[in-house]
Amino acid sequence: MTAIHRRSVFRSLAAALLVGAAGLATPWAQAADEAPDAMILRLSQDVLNTIKADKSLQTGDISKVMALVDSRIMPNVDFRRMTAAATGPAWRRATPSQQQQLQDEFKTLLVRTYAGALRQVSDQTVEVQPMRSAPGDEDVVVRTLVKGRGDPVQLDYRLHKTPGQGTGWKIYDLNVLGIWLVDTYRPQFAQQINAGGIDKLLQTLSERNKTNSAS
Predict the structure, then answer these.
(1) Residue 106 pLDDT more than 90?
(2) Are 102 and 87 in contact (CB under 8 A)?
(3) Residues 155-165: pLDDT tens digits?
(4) CA–CA distance, 170 with 1 (Å, rounded to integer)
(5) How far apart are alpha carbons 10 and 183 in whole angstroms?
């Protein structure tokens, strides 16, 4: 698989995670007692069905994508943890306001980067692999294979069980073909932070989002 094809697959499948679940009839966050592998299977099937049935999602309608992400996806993803992991040690030095801005800009970046790739979703199906965790584990990896045209594609999810309000399994990272999303962005974020701190990172993300919006 070429590097270009690899990136194409990563974008289309990441887009499916970020956008496709918007069609779920029952929000994932309500399924507190559901096993993580069963949840991922249900979520994946609903994701693919939703994308195939909604032409506006397939064409990357940003306004609709953003609205759906806010209403359906964010309650089911620990996006604060995802953003903190991508930011690294500097996250702890950021003010609450900066942390919120980072989450907002990172979310916008992901949505705008991957929304256009949804048109690549076609006849895929998902097969969940046997779990490698022990009963009582609260941090797990659910491994799947996405099958369609060509070779199966590895797509794995890191989830943790959250206590209190909104309990249940929440995803905080995903891995396509051996590449974790957080690991992809961490060195990019670190470069900006080293050049000018959190403010420099925020400025760079904001400028990138404006460029993506204009294009």
Answers:
(1) yes
(2) yes
(3) 899 999 987 65
(4) 31
(5) 13
